Amino acid sequence: MKLRKYIPLLLAIVAGTVMPTGCHHVDNKRTPPAAVWISFANQAVWDTYGVPGALSYRYFIQSLRQPANFPYTATMKTGYGGVLLVSDINGMPRAYDLSCPVENKPDIRVAIDMETTDAVCPKCGSHYDVFVNYGSPTSGPAAKSGFGLTRYMVGNGPNGEYRVISR
Description:
This protein has 167 residues and is α+β, with helices and mostly antiparallel strands. The longest helix is centred in the N-terminal third of the chain and has 16 residues, at 7-22. The protein starts with 6 loop residues before the first helix and ends with a strand. A hairpin with a 5-residue loop joins strand 10 and strand 11 (162-165). The strands form two sheets. A seven-stranded antiparallel beta sheet has the order 2-4-5-10-11-1-3. The chain has one domain (26-165): Rieske [2Fe-2S] iron-sulphur domain (Rieske Iron-sulfur Protein, 3-layer Sandwich). Helices cover 17% and strands 26% of the residues. It has three helices and eleven strands, in the order αβαββββββββαββ. The protein is globular. The protein has helices at residues 7-22, 43-49, 141-145; strands spanning 36-40, 57-60, 77-78, 83-87, 93-97, 111-113, 118-120, 127-129, 136-139, 151-156, 162-165.
């Protein structure tokens, strides 16, 4: 069995490639905590204001009345910098705070760049993967520091309602 002498070398190669990725940590709780409660009363409201399919997105910023004509109520909240609602590559809805965690200001918001399909901060230039990798940083100061976008939960409520809520 000549292969036996190569087993330690193969194990070292595998350990060297797997171990560094296992230690990588993304801090997605850097943005100051803020309440999120967005309710889509029924399927018709979701169809109008939600994210209909893969790679679609929408911004929810209550103070700016975005999206226009969305039926905000007094109890709804849109987080620290607003909410980015996306439909990932599998068509599953995901939600993130719009505030860049590097800048950490409510009025410095990421925006979707459809050429790269990343959310990009206009101030620091950080890129975040919101359609595949759950708001993880891909480049810029956020990637160097390990700062990801704050995530919110998207789920079903009673009577066909859809909700985006803080954790």
